[in-house]
Amino acid sequence: MTQIRKFFPYLISVLAAFVVVGILLWVLGFNPLKAYQTILFTSFRTPNGFIQTLLKWIPLTLTALAFTVPLSSGKFNIGAEGQMLVGAIGAAAVGILFKDLPPALLLPLVILAGMLAGAFWGLIAAWLLYQFNINEILSTVLLNFISFALVDFVATGPWRDPAAGHPTTVPIGAGGFLPMLVKNPPLHSGIILAIIVAVAVYFFTSKTTSGYELVVTGANPRASKVHGINIRKMFLFSLVIGAAVAGLAGVIEVAGTHHRLIEGLHSNFPTLGLIIGLMARGKNQAVPFVAFFISILEVGGSAMQRTIMVPVQIVLIAEALILIFILLSDIIKRRQK
Amino acid sequence: MEQENVLLMQQVNKTFDKVIALSNVNFELKPKEILGLLGGNGAGKTTLMNILYGLYRADSGKVILKGQPVTILSPRDAIRHGIGMVHQHFLQINNYTVLENIILGSRVSRPLTANYSVEEAAIKELCERFGLEIDLSARVETLPMGTRQKVEILKALYRGVSILILDEPTTNLIPQEVDSLFETLKIMVREGLSIVFITHKLREVLSICDRITVLREGKNVISLTRKDASDEMLVRAMVGDKMDLEKSVMFTSREGTGAVSASQDVLHLEGVSMIDQQKIQELTDISFSIGSGEIFGVAGVAGNGQRELAEVVMGIQPVTSGKISFNDQEITTLNTKDRIAEGFVYVPEDRLADGFLNKASVAHNLILGYHNLEPYSRKGIINWKNVNESSRKMISEYNIKTTGPDEIGGNLSGGNIQRVMIARAFSQPSRLMIAHNPTRGLDIPSMDFVYQKLLEHASTGAGTLLISEDLDELLLISNRIAVMYRGKVVGILPREKFEKYEIGRLMSGYEQESK
């Protein structure tokens, strides 16, 4: 019963958002019911639709966790974008430099390099916070811009693929490709990595003493410090872990999806990751489920554009509205007290 | 025929969420009397008076003022009806003068020129009439607590109130200031005012009040004149039948809490000074030792370095110079975590900022600082089964009102948050307890329980640094009392030399100034 009551505001928020979007669609001259049907059921109608959904779920879950893990300690990582891109650069660099290594060596190296590169990008902001008390929101956002330039530099530099019209590197060695789980439609094993990360984050924050320290630091840093917890270390640590997870999202795009570094491979995942993290109210264990829901909307949205010519942006409007209604439900709950 | 009343409150009910704060409370105030409104924390005294002053609205009930039913919706209404209130925390603008603070928010005769000579004359007359000696041109932040309180009283008098409510007015005062306050109250009554004196201190009620009304758990218990009242009767009325007075620390005289056989020093401070990050000298050359089994009290007006002393001892703030040793080992640079591992326990004063996690569960709160110890965790993995089990034990032993270990801390009331902190502090064997205002917000049986625990803890040979703004608390259970003034220890008195006025004199910095 209490479980149902907990979910009630979310359900209402989703419904309300759909009603508003429905009115919008109707005014624009589309059939809202048909649009919803496409949005909600594309993922489950065909194997391809389902696998598309899973492929979206991977980076969405990881970039959302990159936001919520630091948030557990009270820090805002707005830099998943940059960390994902630098992670992708790291993965691509190792994959290209050592392209002749066998899979047993190259794949772990690619993964490790990407995560370390992402972690390093987060460490810059974390260190600035630790040493000089520089606000992490500003530094992580600003580092995003540098990462765009870095991707451009790498993708148009010596590793450039001359055959491509878009800034792109040459492919990484085949040993660095993530093995396929399903051949047709294609599903790579990045999903296993994402599941492992999601479970590990859950285990860490709810079952370990370090995770406890992270959570209580977020709940009240001053009281945590008074009770012997090194909170500055917690801030640093959580930002770096979050950044490494974002880096892994970049790795999977390179080693699983594109097999090379492409400018813009981050798509809108980090932005959606933020929205997912907020919808999950920063709860790490809720992130995978919210991410799955958003993946369904995303896949359904592109299908809707193809089949009934409704612009895909409608889905983004729906997602934003859901978030706004969830935040509104918080205010209503507070008023009721 | 009894004297007619000036104020009647009838059948007042008030609930907060699901908590019943007042149920069918009746209240009567007679002309020219000082009425003591007595009760422990959570008894509903302040709630009742806040309703009268228009800060809260009653769910039901009537207010009859001089025979006329009135509705009071705001403090402005209350003042218009001649009811004023002096809160525990003064509502003053620190860098304004006394005069400016008094006339703030009232109509002035010459608003365009900021020439307040008319108002000044009126206030001076009030000062004379009520025997209040205050320099009207002084900025309030430079004044001692007792004087600031008189400014607050003057504010009410200037607005022409005939009923004045004082909420725990003696809390931050030294004994000399309390005497002076009582003098003022007597003059005010003589001049025709009626006064409600909210307090939980028995002695004050018996020494100043004409009549006494006791509330407990939001209900009327008794109302009687001072002549008819006895200590024992009032104690019983305040605490109810549940409390065992024989075992109580507060209501039985205790012997043998004099000097402890100072065989060994647990804690030793030598010339400790601390300059904080804002470059303010918070502590200056503090030296003392706490013996094994000793409760070492620290008295002082709030904000004279007590909190900084506690934080330096806990290793939360580094010392600038000086040495701290624990059981003859120097620990000056040891961090907080390691001090906790050595057996330091801290009950901070500011519970919401320093002691409690509003956004985490009760269980999270109860293990804070000890989460690395068995049985709470092993090899870095928390055993939530054990945590929940001992949380439930603590919840029942310390009478914490909560739905269970999983409830979010923010749902708890102030008194229950204090109980969580006390439960946590006593949940582990410790060798040095640093307790800062450990009974703030607790009702009387709980206060007594904390005293029993502190004494029991001291009897195990541990040292205790008890910092408190409640002088009675210190006099009750300390072996020695040090007095702090402006970051210095200005005197240390052994139990046989405890004397309230002497401590008050030290607290006001008299000795320092005269040197």
Protein architecture, described:
With 337 residues, chain A is mainly alpha-helical. Chain A has one domain (56-294). Helices cover 76% and strands 1% of the residues of chain A. Chain A has 13 helices and two strands. Chain A has helices spanning 2-28, 32-45, 47-72, 80-97, 103-132, 136-156, 190-207, 209-219, 221-226, 231-258, 269-279, 287-308, 313-336; strands spanning 180-182, 187-188. Chain A has a two-stranded antiparallel ribbon with strand order 1-2. In chain A, strand 1 (180-182) and strand 2 form a beta hairpin. In chain A, helix 4 crosses helix 10 (231-258) and helix 7 crosses helix 8. The relative contact order of chain A is 0.20. By secondary structure, chain B is α/β, with parallel strands linked by helices. Chain B has three domains: 7-239, 3-Layer(aba) Sandwich (Rossmann fold), CATH 3.40.50; 242-343 and 429-515, Rossmann fold; 364-428, no CATH class. Chain B has 18 helices and 22 strands. Chain B has helices at residues 45-52, 75-80, 98-103, 117-130, 145-158, 175-190, 202-208, 231-239, 306-314, 336-342, 351-355, 362-367, 384-397, 414-426, 444-459, 471-477, 500-507, 510-514; strands at residues 7-16, 19-29, 34-38, 60-65, 68-70, 83-86, 163-167, 194-199, 211-216, 219-225, 265-275, 281-291, 295-299, 321-326, 329-330, 344-347, 377-378, 381-382, 432-436, 463-467, 480-485, 488-494. In chain B, strands 6-7-8-3-9-10 form a six-stranded mixed beta sheet, sandwiched between helices. In chain B, strands 16-19-20-13-21-22 form a six-stranded mixed beta sheet, with helices on both faces. In chain B, helix 6 (175-190) links the parallel strand 7 (163-167) and strand 8. The radius of gyration of chain B is 24 Å and the shape is globular. The interface between A and B is medium-sized, with 21 and 32 residues.
